[in-house]
Protein 1
Amino acid sequence: MFIDVRLLHYKERSFTYLVPDTLQSQIKPGILVKVPLQSRIVPAIVHSVTYNKKYNFEIKPIVAIYAFPDDKKYDGFIAKISQYYQVDSINFIKRIQKFLEEKEKPVKTVQLVAENAYNKIVLTDQQQQVYTAIKQSVDLQQHQTHILHGVTGSGKTEVYKKLIEDVLKKQKSIILMLPEVTLAVQFEQLLKNYFSHIPVIGFHSATLVTVKRSLWQLLLDKKTCIIIGVHLPILLPISNLGLIIVDEEHDAGYQEKKHPKIHSRDMAILKASMYQVPIVLGSATPSIQSLWNVTKRNWQLLQLKERFAGSFPKIEIVSLKQKEKRACFWITKQLHMEIQNRLERKEQTIIFLNRRGYSFFVQCLCSYVFTCKQCSVSLTLHADQLLVCHYCNYNQTLPTCCPECHLSQKDFLKKGVGTQQIVSMLQKLFPQAVIARADADTTSKKRSWQQTVQDMLEGDIDILVGTQSIAKGYHFPKVTLVGVLWADLNLHFPMYNAAETTLQQLIQVSGRAGRQSQESKIVVQTFDDHPVYRFIDETKYIQFYQQEVERRTEVGYPPYKHIAEIEIRHKEQIVAETEADIVVERMQSYIEHKKLQVEIFGPVSAVVYKVKGVYAQKIILKSFVRSNMIELFADIKLKQFKSGMFFVIDPVG
Ligand SMILES: [Zn+2]
Ligand SMILES: [Zn+2]
């Protein structure tokens, strides 16, 4: 047996080695081996396996194989994902073992205080009912998909803990998925305190290499453990898997931002079905897709309709168009007054602004707009007069005069609104308040975000201003006011699920208020009224689902029909455009020939058609049958193109 390998540290070059008979049974593409190279022994990844090939020179044998946990169902599962996303399986197997050869980067993590530590779980009647229903499939170790629709603050975590306890008693392991690393870290701490006798281990980008190694050893030894993460745990070989929990299952954070755009919730569902184990999808705002499957695929819907403590906040919709005089356009009188009250009562406020897709840009009176040289987007103005590209991180200081007409900086128009600007406005309005910010700029620095979460929990922050990251499942007991600065900002975003994601965010961020207090409030500022605001009252969420499904069925969007996206990328615009046309032609004839049921839309330039100097064209596919779209793209992959071809099935935005 011969293998072609790529060296882990010099990826471009490929080498061939011989595998001694004794090691052959353990070899598969994607695993790590040690190979001799000149006078050294270096790590490499197996790319392909060949038999009976004749070489007219000597092939050296590999030295060792890194042990890979034994899991009978693993190869089948990875093959399925690889087929579904049309990506080589090596990509997946490689990702979960890279750490074996990584050096520890020194990182300081913040110890988060976990509430509910050590307390014995006492379930409410509703929690008990939900728990009993799921426990049946846990006890029988039977595959079933349960949707746990629990209103914000209903104590889904308590139900999870009870279920985890039951699974541990069966000597089985658990995967718990969260849509964001900081949330994963918070849960790790919480469960570590509670399950002190069982290893609770994170497996995500913030996990230390030594911790990953200890998890790997547990998997090799088939020991019981609780594994927490965002994407990676799904890709691990776990022979004694007993339960998967996906919390905040509606969250777009489960779809990877880079290609291949794996949706980890969907892969968790696939894994649960292939491993024949139960799966729980928890959310206060279940995705339309998941609720649809209750009727279409017999998933079980369980509901927690009451809050564990506190009560639902009052909702007030306020128009930004009202003409009253105010110190700052973005803080209406109503919101101003409510914040003032909170400061007096020493309660906390969250201010939410989601800027996705629109930014705070600078324009000269001559109409010149500062744009990125490499991307087709305007630059965003940050503090310290810094212009930043949100797509490639290019930055420059705001010039003192316009490069076109040489008008001075003081005549520039600054359009839109950003979190940094809101923080400084609030600081002027409320000089005595402690104000913190949480958005992509701060949350990507994981440590500082963990610190902010901690300060918030300890009551050291009066007002937290943030983008979508603050809407994700955090439990801040002292928050009694949430101000949504610009609710219709993304409602008109050109994506079929804009109303769904907007409503989910509004409910989620509103759910941060009134966790412990009986009196809390949401102020929703908007330019125009919109029918979705009726459903911010989360007890009406299922009504929203029914209405939304009707609308999507009419226009043929998911969940009624499935969609997929093909992205064609090239440095030269003309190449991307020409090849996109060729792709469409080839697909059309393939569809006719094979009698597939797929509709093709496009090609069109992507909304952001140029990123880092690379042009992108998009083609959208729609079909009742996912496998038809996959087959179609598989055929495209057979042809040689100059452009990069990327396939995204079930894109969520
Ligand atoms: Zn750029
Ligand atoms: Zn100008």
Protein 2
Amino acid sequence: MGRRGEETKKTDDRIEALDRELSRLGIRIRDADQRKVLDEVFDEVTLHALYKLANKKVITAVGGSLSTGKEANVFSAGCGEGKDCVIKIYRIRTGNFNAMGDYILGDPRFSNIRKTKKDIIFAWTKKEYSNLSRATEAGLPVPLPIAFDRNILIMEFLGEGGIPYPQLRLDPPADPERAYEEILDLITRLYQKARLIHGDLSEYNILSGGDRLWLIDMGQAVTPDHPSAHRFLFRDIKNINRYFGNRCTILDEHDILKGIVGEDFFTP
Ligand SMILES: Nc1ncnc2c1ncn2[C@@H]1O[C@H](COP(=O)(O)OP(=O)(O)OP(=O)(O)O)[C@@H](O)[C@H]1O
Ligand SMILES: [Mg+2]
């Protein structure tokens, strides 16, 4: 066997060992039928992070897939006695991580990280965790962050009876006027109270359920001192106006921006 072959075999052995450890902890993931997807998501680094989370009893089960996105896979999971939670795994092998650099490197909280692909993904995961914490502390309706390790984020499950709340795009609001107001209020509070700009706001990243709207997917959210902060905020506002434009009366996007950022607008 060549050197390359030996390396691969060693990795396979380590992966198998981690697999066994995880099954010992009652967590089964690799016997599902979507083998290829699983191989792409559950590489050695990811399995090791999962093992640590399972060993600490943060997670007790990995459930079905909720979503496969550009950068991440989202699974339902168990977090202790009958409690649902969500595992978001940023893919190390096949993630589209190039765009991540722009958001991370302009953010003073994360500007000193090393710049390898893995480092950026780990920093991104940590950033999503801390963004969710900030938003939670400011009282915004976002999933409560529970834990993170490397490329894995564990958060509260938003849903009822094991069924996740639908994205706004799949469950258009019965009262669009009210939903529009609610979202503008969320963007405003996110900026003014949590000091965050979502940065990828659309009907895809808003869930609707329990008689309210929820903001999710906050990895790219930045603070107002990010050099592109107001450009991202303006883009979020335009996205929301685009969605509501043919559903209810909308406000002028420049007026909304000024209303949200207030005096910040004039600071250099
Ligand atoms: N906490 C949660 N509770 C219930 N469902 C969730 C939760 N988080 C995510 N989901 C579901 O998974 C989908 C994808 O999640 P999310 O938007 O965070 O990742 P993504 O769009 O794949 O991210 P990226 O674009 O960065 O790859 C959501 O649209 C939602 O349907
Ligand atoms: Mg999303």
